[in-house]
Amino acid sequence: MTTRLFPLLGLAALAKAATVTYDFSIDWVTANPDGMFERPTIGINGKWPLPIMEANVGDQVIVNAFNNLGDQATSLHFHGLYMNGSTHMDGPSQVTQCAIYPGSSFTYNFTVKQPGTYWYHSHTKGQYPDGLRAPFIIHDPNNPFKDMYDEELVLTVSDWYHDQMPGLLNFFISKANPTGAEPVPNSALLNETQNLTIPVEPERTYLFRMINMGAFAGQYVWFEGHNITILEVDGIYTQPAEADMIYLSAAQRCSFLLTTRNSTTENFPIVASMDTTLFDQLPEDLNYNVTGWLVYDSKEPLPEPAILYEDFDPFDDMTLIPWDNEPLLGEPDRIITLDVIMDNLGDGANYAFFNNITYVSPRVPSLYTALNAGELATDPRIYGEYTHPFVFEKDEIIELVINNIDSGRHPFHLHGRSFQAVWRSEEEAGTFEDSNVTSESFTPIPMKRDTIVLFPEGNLVLRFRADNPGVWLFHCHLEWHVQSGLIATFVEAPLELQKELVIPKNHIDACEAAGVPTVGNAAANLDYLDLTGQNMPPPPLPAGFTTKGIVAMVFSCISGILGVAVIAWYGFADVPKEEPSTIVAPGKAAGAEGGVVEGDGNGSGSGDDASSPTAQKETVVGTISNNGDDEITASGGGRDRVP
Ligand SMILES: [Cu+2]
Questions:
Q1: Which is it for strands 53-56 and 133-139: parallel, antiparallel or unpaired?
Q2: Distance 481 CA to ligand 1 centre (A)
Q3: Quick check: 94 and 48 in contact, CB under 8 A?
Q4: How much is the pLDDT for 573?
């Protein structure tokens, strides 16, 4: 068992704004958080789990990041911070900065203006699941709930892979994985460990700040024998709301009160259960739960969870009411509809698309293009088709309609702000357009957060005011889908940015060290409307069948016909007269007759399968995957996610 509590410094006692400085050397360490496999992990200053960042509202935060990894570039994103006036400190590489190359330094410097529960993580090449992720807590001297609890605790939930991301990504986006089956985690973790124990005192109220820092798995969380009261989601204070179970997608946070019982005779399990509907396959040895305990008395046993749910019924975050009671924003100036689609491209790999575009990084970070393009900065074309850019005017009200054409859940995250979640359909409701919902059905005081789950084949409507000049990504927070392209770029009031923003020299130095150009359009051309040479995704699949596909289909048909012929020949042949008892295994005599009949049935069943359309499709898929490398076995082929 592990008591790995993240103690908080409780900076809220200090009222005056201060400067909080962190010197982070990002380097490799080894870690084995699930006790099953020791692996290289990205640490900070030689340690993992990473330090919690803490500040007070109003503080200036400086992070001096040095990349000591040797073999990978990196960057830091401070998830959920609006970065008002400091979009260049937001962290995604090739968007607001160049990736920090090995041996380079980069200074993040920003003022925190929001209270709440946040986290920081790498925003470069799907890297954070290798360890570069940790809480970031911003204390609020004016917290409206500060008299309601005695103590604060940080509790993270996450998923864990034994293999490292570069290898997993090579497999995930390859023709060896044409269905786009996401690698399934090896374990779930609480506070980056397992068997976590949290010592508690009776009749005391704790504020839990909970964060899902995982790569992929959403998690159901409950505390046996205790209810919780939600007070904050993603940095937004809410009207207190009772819950017995919550769901946290990757990147979501939730603060809640938990009041302990008055007796100390028993300890209680805390269970986090990974959402297996996201997994294309369920490995037999996978424990998708992780258990910790509220420990009232360390001499008492730590009981196994008593309740394990078949059907989960978590708290519905759409019913939350923000503490500030902000009403629904008015009619939008602009409506953007994004359809979530998974499809294959000409390299045989599976990609994720908003409408018809899968994101590809530009050659010049989009922010630097915005700053250098003069008047043309308001023309979306200069950011390149494959960054999927939208340019907003200052203070426009934007409505985002997201339709899930895919059968998976996707947690969508918007950088630079929280949004009003004004409508979310049930699963399989189809597109928003087809649902015939009007704005009269929108929530009058909508829940706000920065990461929200879109249900399978459902739809979602978000609104926000474009009041934060900057370059902000909107993307799915499943790290696999970030890499397969489920990203759009919002460029907000670029002409204002040009007036206000100066990029520090050490940011430009990082680009020079990495050999990344800092002027020009997405293609690094100084003629801003000439996109020749821009980075592009693989071409679409050729129409119809490829030569290989045709050959595979012909062979499938031949083997199918042969199969049917063999069965017909077998069926018409004379049946030898045998006593059933010679076939039936010892001890199964009671079902003797049934046994004989079933045996024959199975024989002809496989013949039918061989000639069915399904079998032909599988043969074709098999032919493709045999050409790929199978070096990564953790994920296997996976099944098709389209039912
Ligand atoms: Cu996704």
A1: parallel
A2: 5
A3: no
A4: 60
3-class DSSP assignment, residue 633: coil
Give dist(CA 419, CA 402) in Å, integer. Answer: 13
Closest CA to 422 of 360, 500, 335: 335
Residue with tokens 């409701």: 429
pLDDT given at position 614: 32
Q: State CA 478 to chain mean position distance.
A: 2
A 10 A CB-CB count for 565 gives 11
Centre of ligand 1 to C-alpha 412, Å, is 7
Number of other residues whose CB lies within 10 A of the CB of residue 319: 10
Whether the Cβ atoms of residue 146 and residue 130 lie closer than 8 Å to each other: no
Distance 476 CA to ligand 1 centre (A): 5
- Between the CA of 479 and the centroid of ligand 1 the distance, in Å, is 8
d(Cα 370, Cα 499) in Å, to the nearest integer? 11
Judge contact between 464 and 415, C-beta under 8 A. no
Residue 609: per-residue pLDDT: 34
Task: Find where tokens 């994004």 sit.
Answer: 338
pLDDT at residue 603 in the model = 30
Q: In what order do the strands lie in the sheet with 470-476?
A: 389-392, 487-492, 470-476, 410-414, 451-454
Alpha-carbon distance 476 to 460, whole Å? Answer: 13
| CA 409 to ligand 1 centroid distance, Å | 7
Distance 317 CA to ligand 1 centre (A): 19
Q: Cα 261 to the chain's mean position, in Å?
A: 35
Task: Give me the DSSP letters along 147-193.
Answer: GG-SEEEEEEEEEE-SS-HHHHHHHHTSTT-TT-PPPPPSEEEETTB
Tabulate helix, strand, coil % of the chain (nearest 5): 20, 30, 45
Cβ–Cβ < 8 Å for 431, 339: yes
Residue type, 585: A
339 alpha carbon – ligand 1 mean position (Å): 12
DSSP type of residue 208: E
Going by the DSSP 8-state scheme, the letter that residue 450 receives in this structure is: S
Question: What are the structural domains of the chain?
Answer: 334-514 (2.60.40.420), 544-585+601-643 (no CATH)
Contact 52, 137 (CB under 8 A): yes
Q: Which phi and psi (to 5°) does residue 270 adopt? A: -110, 125
Residue list, CB under 5 A from ion ligand 1: 410, 476, 478, 481
Environment class of residue 549 by beta-carbon count within 10 Å: exposed (0-12), middle (13-18) or buried (19+)?
middle
Q: Give me the pLDDT at residue 595, please.
A: 29
Full-model pTM: 0.84
d(CA 470, CA 178) in angstroms, rounded, equals 36
In order, the DSSP letters of 23-34 are EEEEEEEEE-TT
Whether the bond into 141 is cis, omega within 30 of 0: no
Q: Cα-flanking dihedrals φ and ψ of residue 609, to 5°?
A: -55, -40
Alpha-carbon distance 197 to 302, whole Å? 9
With 0-12 / 13-18 / 19 or more C-beta atoms within 10 angstroms meaning exposed / middle / buried, residue 114 is middle
Average pLDDT by consecutive 10-residue portion of the chain (643 residues)? 57 70 98 98 98 98 98 98 98 98 98 98 98 98 97 98 98 97 98 98 98 98 97 98 97 98 94 95 93 97 86 95 98 98 98 98 98 98 98 98 97 98 97 93 96 98 98 98 98 98 98 97 98 97 66 67 67 50 32 30 32 30 28 27 23
